[in-house]
Amino acid sequence: MLTKRIIPCLDVKNRKVTKGIRFQGNVELGDPVEMAVTYSDGGCDELVFYDITASAEYRPIDIDMVREVARAIHIPFAVGGGIRGLGDMQEVLLAGADKVSINSLAVENPSIIAEGARVFGSQCIVLGMDPVANPDRKRFPSGYEVTIRGFRQRTGLDALEWAKRAEDLGAGEIVVNSVDADGTRNGYELNLTRLIATNVGVPVVASGGAGSPRHLIDVFTTGRADAAIVATIVHTGEYTIAQIKDELARAGIPVRKKW
Amino acid sequence: MVAVIDYKAGNLTSVRLALEHIGSECKITSTASDVLAAARVIFPGVGAAGEAMRNLHELGLTEVIREVALSGKPFLGICLGTQIILDYSEEDGGTQCLGLIPGSVKRFVPSDPTCKIPHMGWNRVRIVKSHPIFEGIEDESEFYFVHSYYPDPADRSHVFGETDYAAVNFASVIGCGNIIATQFHPERSGRIGLRMLANFTRWDGKC
User: Fold this and answer.
1) If we measure between CA atoms, which residue out of A221, A217, A209 comes closest to residue A243?
2) How many alpha carbons lie under 13 Å from residue A141 in its C-beta half-sphere?
3) Which of A70, A257, B55, B130 is 20 to 30 Å apart from A11, CA to CA?
4) Could you tell me the fold of the domain covering B2-202?
5) Is A234 a member of any domain?
6) Which residues, in sequence order, are bridge partners of residue B99?
């Protein structure tokens, strides 16, 4: 049986992993390469790195960091933030990343999804999206609007329509990062996750809000997610990946237990 | 020296880094003489079967691969590399493949609405027949998969490992003589995957 993936997310700023709440008030947590090794040795299934200021500052991603991570770990990892086009995608993939996550770029230029999928394969192209609840159901039938540039900019796009369009264009996976839940530790946005996960054919990764193993159980059952991103819950040391997996296994959710 | 065949089907960085990690000297190459001179050969690949076969023909590598297969030299297929050593793939409207092992490659059909294609993530490999590449690896260990098509060898004796997905119990490790091939990515399967690659670099090609 395919196991549910637990994916620590490392938000990187100036070569340091940081974490904030709803993209604000970030504090430094450590060195990205060292943390990648710790999580990989500790049984995480995949990793994702976001260069969180690259996009807002319109500068390229830190490619040396990608190279070092690729040399240090031998599990899949994705890289996002500051990808400006096919050239950047190629650089990141050749540096050893398995996937590139595009977010703001995809909204501004949706054809980049199709081009990336054609050149590198769908499995390399992850659509990241940062939806926020919007009660205007006329404009946003799903109840969620997509934001970009780290919640700094609204797009007028309905979250579910955007997810379906991205799938049609060739995105191989969709990361749904709830702006409302991000860093709150109050649980994933189950309604949003389920809505996307049950309406697209590609794997959906839930992101934002994990504060206890119970939240992961909920997002894999009620939320129907294929994978879940964790950040604060593991960065603080409150739970290890192994502890989270033990709880999931007890709840009957398939997880990778040997590594 | 391990030759890693580059036929423009995907990125070989992670294969190279995994081999470097286990201390194995490798050369990523599209050149027939390099492949024939190497002590062992890895045939990786991601992407689509049709384009992969076209690239192999254009690079003049199809005969070289057949020659390696007949030479007794240890040969490891990975992912798309595993699929195109069979006779035929359903992908790209039907693609004639290398035919090193009899059988075909089929597309997963979602078994229910929650079943996602591609099969992406870590899944269990049940060892159905022992092989030197499983040395030190527990039965039912998980490996990392990313694929939408799966190998379906004609002869049961060519199946070494099996995995369940989309209501199919498919052959995730196949082999014949000096050929062994995995549908998953050992280079991306952590410590256990590295162990499998290390086992391959020590294998004499006999089983």
Assistant:
1) A217
2) 5
3) A257
4) Rossmann fold (3.40.50)
5) yes
6) none
Assigned domain for A22 exists: yes
Is A202 in the B-facing interface, judged by CB distances under 8 Å? yes
The answer to whether the beta carbons of residues B86 and B103 sit under 8 Å apart is yes
Q: Are B74 and B179 in contact (CB under 8 A)?
A: no
Please name the residue that has the structure tokens 């929650």.
B114
Are A76 and B114 an interchain contact pair (Cβ–Cβ within 8 Å)? Answer: no
Q: Note down pLDDT in tens along chain B; length 207 residues.
A: 999 999 987 889 999 999 999 999 999 999 999 999 999 999 998 888 999 999 999 999 999 999 999 999 999 999 999 999 999 999 989 999 999 999 999 999 988 878 898 899 999 999 999 999 999 999 999 999 999 999 999 999 999 999 999 999 999 999 999 999 999 999 999 999 999 999 999 999 998
d(CA B162, CA B171): 5
Closest C-alpha to A174, from A206, A152, A150, A149:
A206
Nearest to A133 by CA among A180, A176, A175: A180
Structural domains in chain A (count): 1
CB of A119 within 8 Å of a chain B CB? The answer is: no
Helix, strand, coil percentages, rounded to 5, for chain B: 30, 30, 35
DSSP string, B43-85: E---S-HHHHHHHHHHTT-HHHHHHHHHHT--EEEETHHHHTT
Q: Is residue A74 included in any domain, yes or no?
A: yes
The ipTM value here is 0.93
**Residue A60 token pair:** 């390229």
Phi, psi of A205, rounded to the nearest 5 degrees: -110, 120
* Closest residue to A3, CB basis, from B11, B138, B142: B142
Q: What 3 state SS string does A173-206 have?
A: EEEEECCCCCCCCCCCCHHHHHHHHCCCCCCEEE
Say if CB A200 and CB A174 are below 8 A apart: yes
Catalytic residues of A: 11, 130
Catalytic status, residue B185: yes
* Domain extent at residue A245: 5-250
What would the two tokens of residue A48 be?
Answer: 């994702």
State how far the Cα of B87 lies from the Cα of B100, in Å rounded to an integer: 7
Residue A191 domain-assigned?
A: yes
A89 inside 8 A of chain B by CB: no
Residue A31 in tokens = 């060195």
Query: Where do the structural domains in chain B lie, given as residue ranges?
Result: 2-202
CATH number, domain with residue A190: 3.20.20.70
